[in-house]
Write a structure and sequence with these properties.
This protein is an alpha+beta fold. It has seven helices and eleven strands. The protein has two domains: about 120 residues, Aminopeptidase, CATH 3.40.630; about 150 residues, 3-Layer(aba) Sandwich (Aminopeptidase). It is globular. The two termini are about 30 Å apart. The structure holds coenzyme A (COA). This is GNAT family N-acetyltransferase.
């Protein structure tokens, strides 16, 4: 099958699976990466690296090998299997056996063809980019008396660093976020940078206080800051909920729902049509929480870590 026919068939299958998935981009000649071919499919294998000692290293393995696939033909599962086999030969040359490496395949969550092929090759569904269209209703607990949401200020730096480190350690259990020896310094740098907009009309960090005690925070990106994520959804104005965390002692009491309701109000006021967020699929707290708040899976990232078992 020729390349244009594969791309057209792949796009047709995706648009039938999920109307919120944009038409896949065409790879341009000279695009970085290694093209791989199967009879009825094609893929682009890429590699991305972040350096130790940078805030980016907190949230992912240092080296990620990624495969972007286009599947067609009467048996797209077999096509994926053939592409994964080619990719494994390619990865074997990279000798990516270190824990700080991962092989990652990101697929539209509702395009489920080939799921068993991914499982067979040792991939696990690990990270989800979830979406909440603006008109969705959430069904969290009733509002809690005593919860107050306010802007984070420069003086909140120690509280935010503590809460963000708690979030980092909790999320590190689920396979993508990675524990680092210089974590405290990196989280402090990252939080200080985020607090730089604390005095603006649209601050990104908000704190939940229960009777004056700070017990949780939410970080939001309104347009245009969330532009980087808009290519993943068919909506013009997109917001990104970057993180939300509630101190362990205050969980399951409505604080997280109060923060989420506040974030959704900010997105509504900014005319956002769809809010996106990442969460770890195996997180037993965030997964049910977000789906009760009106989110649903849009893109699923399958990880194998290390990249070669
Ligand atoms: C995920 C997290 C933010 C949720 O915050 P939270 O304050 O615990 O959540 P809430 O109390 O507002 O909402 C959950 C509670 O609402 C209630 N609830 C949920 N749906 C409900 C419904 N339909 N009707 C009535 N009550 C409901 C339940 O009591 C539920 O608690 P339970 O699941 O333990 O039974 C928090 O658990 C947390 O910080 N986890 C660790 C870090 C993390 O995972 N962060 C997210 C990263 S993406």
């Amino acid at each position: 099958m020729d390349i244009d026919a594969i791309a057209a068939e792949h796009a047709r299958r995706l648009s039938g699976a999920d109307a919120l998935i944009p038409r896949p981009r065409l790879w341009t000649d000279g695009q970085a990466g290694t093209p791989l071919r199967a009879r009825d499919g094609l893929a682009l294998a890429t590699r991305s690296v972040v350096r130790t000692g940078t805030p980016a290293a907190l949230w992912r393995p240092l080296v990620e090998y990624r495969l972007d696939v286009r599947l067609a033909g009467t048996d797209p599962s077999a096509t994926l299997s053939a592409l994964l086999a080619r990719w494994d030969e390619h990865l074997a040359e990279a000798e990516a056996v270190d824990w700080d490496s991962a092989a990652v395949v990101t697929r539209p969550s509702r395009d489920t063809v080939g799921t068993s092929e991914l499982l067979r090759r040792g991939f696990a569904p690990t990270r989800v980019l979830a979406v909440r269209p603006a008109d969705r209703l959430g069904a969290g607990p009733p509002a809690v008396p005593g919860v107050r949401i306010r802007h984070a200020e420069a003086a909140d730096l120690p509280t935010l660093v503590r809460l963000r480190q708690e979030l980092h350690s909790y999320d590190a259990q689920f396979g993508v976020v990675t524990t680092r020896p210089d974590e405290h310094d990196l989280v402090t740098t990252e939080t200080r940078d985020l607090l730089a907009d604390a005095d603006s009309a649209t601050p990104s960090l908000w704190i939940a206080e229960l009777y004056g005690r700070p017990l949780g925070f939410v970080e939001v990106q309104l347009p245009p800051a969330a532009k980087w994520v808009s290519e993943y959804v068919t909506a013009d104005r997109v917001g990104y909920l970057a993180s939300l965390h509630v101190a362990e002692e205050a969980r399951s009491t409505g604080v997280g729902s109060a923060l989420a309701a506040h974030a959704h109000q900010l997105f509504d006021e900014a005319g956002v049509e769809a809010v996106l967020l990442h969460h770890a699929q195996a997180n037993p707290r965030s997964t049910p929480f977000w789906y009760a708040q009106g989110y649903r899976p849009l893109w699923s990232s399958w990880y194998r870590r290390p990249a070669i078992g």
